[in-house]
Design brief:
By secondary structure, the protein is of the alpha+beta class. A five-stranded mixed β-sheet has the order 1-2-5-4-3. It starts with a helix and ends in a 7-residue tail after the last helix.
Length: 202
């Protein structure tokens, strides 16, 4: 089997897991290798290739339901962004890029002058959250404040992850990604997406 064909097959299998089970790309790729009974050290496709496969999967299998689910998640993201305007919230991940389904989590990046201020704000609002450390887009460790929020239109409890960055990180945050897209959007940008007619996977 040619490497390109194998990579595409892994990406397609991973895409199904991302959409149908809500897996993140890394775990989905590793599970796909197991499902296809491939050697553990098989070269994995890049995230961009998996994302392209996710768009294709949604267009074929979820075109009737995904736009509505995506809009509901973007509305919920706006609620949390509007609650934390002082921390310059930016939406990123599948909900921003348009590949989210009802099983997807919401990822919001906060750019704070004081890294503890966002945590204090959640405590002040009696929000239950779980702090953890993750690798941020800068490649360094950042704090993530993870919580659950009810999305009424979907009747689903959705994971909302607030990633806490320094204010200075915002300068590099708006550079275009490898596909020439803005990798995250502020409150006004998300509102603009919601006001546009939704398309499957966009």
């Amino acid at each position: 089997m040619k490497t390109n064909t194998l990579s595409a097959e892994i990406a397609a299998a991973a895409a199904a897991l991302v959409v149908e089970e809500g897996l993140e790309y890394g775990p989905a790729k590793r599970r796909a290798v197991k499902q296809l009974a491939l050697p553990a050290r098989t070269a994995l496709p890049g995230n961009d290739e998996v994302e392209d496969a996710v768009y294709e999967y949604i267009a074929v299998f979820c075109a009737d339901t995904q736009p509505t689910e995506l809009a509901a998640l973007r509305e919920l993201a706006l609620v949390w962004m509007a609650r934390l305007p002082q921390f310059r919230p930016y939406l990123t991940g599948a909900v921003w890029h348009g590949t989210a389904t009802r099983l997807s989590d919401i990822y919001i990046q906060l750019f704070c002058d004081d890294s503890k201020s966002a945590e204090i704000a959640l405590i002040d609002h009696n929000v239950d959250y779980e702090p953890r450390t993750v690798t941020g887009f800068t490649g360094t460790s950042v704090e993530a404040l993870s919580l659950s929020s009810l999305c009424k239109p979907l009747n689903e409890t959705v994971g909302v992850h607030l990633m806490v960055y320094d204010h200075d990180d915002l300068r590099g945050a708006l550079r275009l990604d490898a596909k020439g897209r803005t990798p995250r959007g502020d409150l006004a940008a998300v509102q603009k997406l919601l006001s546009a007619a939704p398309e499957p996977g966009r």
